[in-house]
Design brief:
By secondary structure, the protein is an alpha+beta fold. Helices cover 55% and strands 10% of the residues.
Amino acid sequence: MRAAFVFMGRGMLYDPAAPMTNEKKVPEGRLNRFVRLAGLGARTGAAHLLSRRGDAAAEAAAHVAEVLGTMRGLAAKVGQMASYVDGFVPEPQREAYEAALRSLRAAAPTSSPAAIRAVVEEDLGATIGELFAAWDDAPFASASIGQVHRAALADGREVAVKVQHPGIDRAMASDLENAGVIQAMVGALAPRALDSKRVFEEVRARFLEELDYGLEAERQRYFAGVHRGDPAIHIPEVIAERSSRRVLTAELARGVTLEEAATRDERTRRAYAEALWRFVFKGNLVGGMFNADPHPGNYLFQPDGRVTFLDFGCVELLDGTRLEHGRAMHAAALRKDEAAFARHAALILGTRGGRFEELSLVYTRRCFEPLFGAQFRVSRAYVASLVEGVMAIKEQILVKDSGFVQLPPGMLFLNRLQFGFYSVLARLDVEADYAEVERAFLSEAGLLG
């Protein structure tokens, strides 16, 4: 079993001994990227019509992976999500698409050594030789926004240096101007009748923040503080003097992938699942922030049940009444107080009665099933049922007097967290007492009254 050397998530799971050579320049122009996406939509649509032919679906899926991987940016993020969120891809094409799109988690095309060196030296104001005692020009990982190089500091510490692909900021701007890319993501996670301008701005703000590695470094240190003292949670230390807006350096992390972790014994998988739950919901309810990118590549698993958490680029603040009602809703679930749970859920969602509220509360209650019962197993079928629940809610949008209300700010990314995080837990396929895990950290924080 080979250990993965990883820095900052999104599928960055590669052995440095196997250098990547798939160098491609990021397509930046809006028209160029729009044409690629339009062609992609036409081809995949034809494949869906021929879904009974396995070879046609596999060929179309491979083409999707190749195009999205070359484009990188927001386009690749859509493909990455489709590769691991159960229910995202229609069942007839699921196997073919998951297999092909998994490559987006494993690797994206890389930028040239010269271009990467130029970014590092421009941002940090010195040559590579002055900044690092050793530097490997061959990246050991590449993803939608940046690629990662192994290096060493003068004191001998091994580090991983994440560097943005040159031109990725312009590519992301182009994707955000191409409404079809946003619709592909929003359409899968939220009703189409949302206030499209507000949703667009919410998505735009979160993804543009991911281009600021300085902000990401601050958030990484914050999460490390929230979980300090937890022996099962490890967050790599940021090397501030070797980090900037486009360069982020941290201690080199080692571990195995989710796929390998899923083959471990039941006790170890349970330890992984409990650590994952504590990281997510302690961050939300105690720390007041949630990391909205639950990509499988953002987790590294250790033999003793510890988990290393990576990538803090897509983080949203939870505060005010949303945090207050969120804490109350979780506490109600732990008490098995159905009425209080429904009341606080309705306040968070801002519903006003009718069929829309009814289905929204049924869906929310279903999401919290792991807290209402002891020893719950998050399965792939359970996660797919959550996606189906969202689809049922969507059907009420055009129904007169259904009571439809716009999704409150921040809920789009909470949906992303719910689907993605639960999909990760489903791969571990183990029963765990999530209620007891949550009760412990809420009590420690004095939040259970």
